[in-house]
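explain this:

___
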Amino acid sequence: MSKLYDWVIGKAQSPSAIWWLIAVSFAESSFFPAPPDILLVPMCLSKRDKAWIYGLWCTFASVIGGFLGYWIGCSLFEGIGGKLLDLYGYRSSFERLIKELQDWAFWAISIKGITPIPYKIVTIASGAAKIDLKVFFCASLIARSLRFFLLSGLCWRYGGAIESFINNYLNKIAFGSLFLIIIGFVIFYFL
């Protein structure tokens, strides 16, 4: 794990890091499986003075990428959208999410956009449910801002302690993160 961590930190310090962060943030909101947090946190830790800028770019790209996910759900659901749901194992709980979005669009998007639940599922479902674009945009902006600025802020404020903690507990953090991702999938699947 330490070699992987060193590799990610190396990429986070490279001149092209911001472009990778933007690309991953955009893609994760519509089809890509890995969350942008895996780049955002190391980037913020390696250059703490830019943590807020990284959080801003991550938020911006994620919200814009959410519109691609919305379009996939709205216009390409039978082709691409359904296949993505099958790939991530969300087909069976999709109808329940559609109902939640139709009943509580703003709150459902806002809450699910902060959690470890894959945001692409929320954006595709929002498109399939034909949620009002203004509601979708506002809820996405709030949710993604909260998520990414919280991470950036924690890295900015507690960067040294976080790096020390990561260096001491990297394997446990990796397994804990995997556990949280699995819990997010389970919560989404069964709730």
Notes: The chain is about 85% helix and 0% strand.
